[in-house]
Amino acid sequence: MSLWQFGGARQAAFTLLLSDAVARSPFGYLNPLGVGLFDLSKENESQGWRPGEPLQYCLYLNALCVEASRLTDPTWIRFAELSLIHEQLFRDFPGDAKIFLDDGWAFVGPPPVLQAQSGHVALTNTSIGTFGAEVDWGTGYGLLTAGHVGGAVGNSVYTATSLGPAQQVGKVVFCQTAAGAGRRGAADIAVVELGGNKPGVWGGRQPYSVPPLGAIEILRNSGPIRASVKGLWSYLAYPGTNLVFADVYQTVSAVTQQGDSGAVARDPFTGQIAGHVVGATPQVGSYVQEIDYQLGVIAANGSFANIHL
Q: Could you write out the DSSP letters of every residue in the chain?
C-alpha cells in the first residue's frame, strides 16, 4: 500500500514533501526516526476532529534525543508547539508552513526495537523469530519471515516446539534486511524454502491494504491477537543500527514482543495478508511492513519473479 492509497493524493503529496525536507535538514526537524500519515482522531477529540477527516502528517521523534522523560511517558505533540520544527517549516515552506502546522504532529517516545530473540519458532544461525505467510514461486514453495530473522541466503532454518528438539525445515533462499538502506528505507523480508512435497492446500491468499483504524490479526507463535492500525510510516529508522524500514503500519498499541519478528498480519475476517512484523516500540505500537511492498522487492529478483501468496 502506498501513502497515496492510505491517505489520499493531497495528504500523501504533503507527507512526501515533508520527508524530502527532513532529508535536507534532519536536525532542523529534531532528526526524526520516521515520517508518515496517521489517524489522530483520539488526540483531536477535544477540537471536534472526527475519523474520516484528512489524516495528520507525523514525525517520530526519539525521546532519547528530545525529552528523556518521554521514554516512559510517550506523547503526541503538535508541530506548532515545537519551536525548532516550527521555524524549520517556515524556512522550507514559507508559503505553506501553516498547512503543516495545522495538521502536523510529532510522536515523542522510546525508539523501536527489533523483535527477534531466543525461545521462538523460526530459528537460523543468526536469529530467532516467527514464520509468516505461505508463498509459491516457480517450482518452489515456502514461508516468509523477517529479513533480520533469516539473516542470509543459505542459512538453514529450524522450528521447535515444547514437545521436542528443533527440526530443520528448510533454508533461506532470499533475504533483504534493510541494513544500510538510507533515508528512504527498504524491505525486511526473507523467503524460507521448505523441503518435501507441498501440502495439497497451500497459500491462495490475496494482499490486504489496511485502512486507517482498520483491523488486523497477527499470528504470533504464542497465539493470534487483534489490533487496529493507527497509521503508516513512509520510513522508520531504528537508532543504534543502520536499519531503515519502508512502508510500515503502526498499530494503536503494542501487541507483539521479542520473538514475533516475521509473524504474519492478516485481515481477521478474510485471512488476506497485510504484511509481516518487523518490530515494535514497547507500550506504544507494533510495526508491520506492508505485503505488496515486500512481494515487489522479492519479485525484482528474477528467480522469484512470479512469487505469490
A: --HHHHH-HHHHHHHHHHHHHHHH-GGGGT--SEEEEE--TTTTGGGT--TTSPPEEEEEEEHHHH-GGGGTS-EEEEGGG-HHHHHHHHHH-TTTHHHHHHHEEEEEEPPPB----SSSSEE-SS-EE----EEEETTEEEEEE-HHHH-STT-EEEEEETTEEEEEEEEEEEEE--BT--TT-B--EEEEEEPSPPPSS-----B-PPPTT-EEEEEETTEEEEEEEEEEEEEEE-TTSSBEEEEEEEESS----TT-TT-EEE-TTT--EEEEEEEEETTTEEEEEEHHHHHHHHHTSGGGTT-B-
